[in-house]
Amino acid sequence: MQREPPSSILTPRMRLRPWAASDAPALLPVLERNWAHLAPWIPAHVATPVPLAELAERLSTFADDFAAGRAFRYALFGLDDGRLIGEADLFPRDAAGRVPLAKADRVELGYWLDCKVTGRGLATEAAGALVELANTLGGVTCAEIRCETANKPSRRVPMRLGFALTDTLPDVSLRSDARPVLLEVWTLIAATPDSE
Ligand SMILES: CC(C)(COP(=O)(O)OP(=O)(O)OC[C@H]1O[C@@H](n2cnc3c(N)ncnc32)[C@H](O)[C@@H]1OP(=O)(O)O)[C@@H](O)C(=O)NCCC(=O)NCCS
Fold this sequence. Notes:
Low-confidence stretches: none
Strand order of the largest sheet: 1-2-3-4-5-6-8-7
Radius of gyration: 16 Å
Mean pLDDT: 93
Shape: globular
Distance between the termini: 20 Å
Structural class: alpha+beta
Bound molecules: coenzyme A
């Protein structure tokens, strides 16, 4: 039987919880100061700072997607000071693309961090927590991380977590300038009771 992802996850240094529209005032300055850091690598509809009301609507859509089982975007908060520091995502998918959780046989993980907190292992810690969660969902055979070959900090996250590079695909969809890029697919086969 399939389980729903929880609405709160604790790691040693972070709390993960779904976005809410009320996070917009905290998120806006983070997006504003991270534009150059995020824009080359993550979709514009996530990275672009927009007026507060529009950002609240975006976060409300993320919250609706979470509640409907379409995409599980978690905001990351540091346990030391409670500050918003980034996002970690679990996207249900099949071989062809993203699908609702009920139809998924795998999950894709995503993440971004405020540049103020990179270099501390927080993205690896958050992604590791989502791998553990994926193992409990039922019906999920593997976790994937898709990142550009050129995105060295991102590709090191699946490497640290023991993922294997299973594919490299030409992809034009990630970049607003439609410049062709190479997209790597990193895969970790889900732990099963038999394999543990
Ligand atoms: C991708 C991204 C989240 C990676 O951030 P990061 O800080 O390099 O990743 P982590 O938080 O896992 O930290 C790893 C770094 O912390 C260091 N580190 C320190 N303590 C650590 C710990 N306890 N555990 C693991 N790593 C630790 C590691 O050595 C590593 O540094 P290095 O790459 O210089 O060796 C960040 O670069 C980012 O937000 N990029 C823009 C958005 C993006 O590209 N998203 C992914 C799209 S596919």
